Amino acid sequence: MGMKLGLENCQTLLSRLGDPHLDFPSIHVAGSNGKGSLCVQLSAAASASGLTTGLFTSPHLVTVEERIRIDGRPIAPEGFDRALSRVREASEQEPVCSPTYFETTFLAAMVAFREAGVQRGIIETGMGGRLDATRLVCADLCFLTTISMEHSEYLGETLREIAFEKASIHRPGVPIIALDNEDATVREVIESIAGPDLTWWTSQGETSWEGYASMVKEAATILEWSTSSAECVWPGRSPKFGSDWVEGIITRISAAHNAESLAADLSEVERPSVLLLGMTTKSDINETLSPLANQLKANPIFQGLVLTQPITGRNPAVSIEDLNYTLSGFGVEPETVHENPIEAFSVASELAIDGGFDLMIIGSVYLVGDLFRHMIESNECDLWEALTAH
C-alpha cells in the first residue's frame, strides 16, 4: 500500500530471490516526461538487434501485466502470477518485508525477466531516481529526459531538487545522456552529479517521439546493436495511436498529465480540435492547468472543451466539479461536463463530427486507459495483441 521512496525493501527481497536483476545489463531511464516513449523505442531496437529484451514501465493503461513486457509483448497472466508468488514467498520470510505496489511490480518484473532469459533490460523509473527501486538494476547506460516540476511533495520543492533526484540514477563510469535543458540550475546539478560521464543531447526531430528516436540511435551506437530503430507502437502515447477511433474524424491521444507535457502536446496541434479533458489529483492543479487554460483562451484552433474524470487507476480523479471550478478561475468555460468518460467521449466525438474538427483526449493516462479498454471491448479485439508494442 502507499508510496515509499527507498531501496531497503527491494534490496532485501532481491537478495532473497537470488538477485535476478543482476542477470542482465539494463538501460535505466529517468525524467519527468517521455520516459515511456524512449523506453519502448529502445526496447524495439534491442529486440530487433536479436536480444531478448525485457521492458519495465509504469503506470499501465488497462492491465498490470503491461508493466512487464518481453520483446514488446506483455507477459501472460500465468507468468505474472508465478513471478508474483515468488515475490510474496520472499516477502513472508522472517523478518517479514512488505513491498509497496510499485516495488512488487518491479520485483515481479525482475523474476519474470530471469525466467524469460532476458539479455537486455530497459527500465523506466517510477518516480525520481535516487531512491527509486529501479536504481538497483545493473545499468551500463542511462538516459535523462525532461526535468520539470512534478511530485514536489516527494522529490523537492524546487526544480534543482527534482533534477538532483532524477540525475542520481547516474553510476560512476557509466555513460548518461541527458536531454538538453534551458534551466541553468538544472544543468548545473546534472553536471555536478554526472561529471565526465555526461553527454548533453539536443532533440533531433519535429516531435517529441522523433526526438527520442534520435537518442535510441545513439544508444545503438554505444552498445553496438545491429539495428538502431524498429517499428513500434506505444499504446495510448505514440503518434497516430487511436487516430481512427471515431469514424469521420481524426482522434489524437495524449497521456500528458503535468504542466510541461500539456504545453508540449498542445503546441503540436495543427488542426481545429475539440478537447476531452480528465485528470487525476495533482499537488497544484492550478499550476498544472495554467498552460492548457492559456492555450484555450489564446489559440482559436481549440474549438471546444468537454470535461470528464477517469474511473480507473491507482490515483483519485479530479472531480468534474473541481476541474470546472479551477478552469473557470482562468476564464475558461467548457461546452459540457460528464462524469462518465465513455459518455463524455461520445459527446466530444459528436461535437468534433458536427464541426468538422479533430478530437484530442488529454489529461491523464488513466483516462486514456478507460477509453482504450472501451474501444477494445466495443470492437471485440484481442487485448494482448492491442497492447503489444513491437
Please, what is the CATH homologous superfamily of the largest domain? Mur-like, catalytic domain
Quaternary structure: single chain
**Molecular shape:** globular
| β-strand amount | 5-15%
CATH architecture of the largest domain, please?
Answer: 3-Layer(aba) Sandwich
Q: Enumerate the strands of the largest sheet in spatial order, edge to edge or round the barrel.
A: 4-3-2-5-1-6-7-8
Ranges where pLDDT stays below 50 over 5 or more residues in a row are none
Number of domains: 2
**Structural class per helix/strand content?**
alpha/beta
Mean pLDDT: 93
Biggest sheet details = 8 strands, mixed
Quickly count the helices: 14
What's the level 1 CATH class of the largest domain? Alpha Beta
**Rounded radius of gyration (Å):** 21 Å
Helix content bin: 40-55%
The total beta strand count reads 13
Under CATH, the topology of the largest domain is which? UDP-N-acetylmuramoyl-L-alanine:D-glutamate ligase
Separation, N- and C-terminal Cα atoms: 32 Å
Q: What order do the SSEs take from the amino end to the carboxyl end, as H and E?
A: HEHEEEHHEEHHEHEHEHEHEHEHEHH
Structure in words:
With 390 residues, the chain is of the alpha/beta class. It folds into two domains: 8-223, Mur-like, catalytic domain (UDP-N-acetylmuramoyl-L-alanine:D-glutamate ligase); 251-387, Protein-Tyrosine Phosphatase, Chain A (Alpha-Beta Complex). The chain is 41% helix and 14% strand. The protein contains 14 helices and 13 strands. An eight-stranded mixed beta sheet has the order 4-3-2-5-1-6-7-8, sandwiched between helices. A five-stranded parallel beta sheet has the order 9-13-10-11-12, sandwiched between helices. Helix 3 (77-91) packs across helix 4 (101-116). The longest helix has 16 residues, at 101-116. It is globular and about 60 Å long.
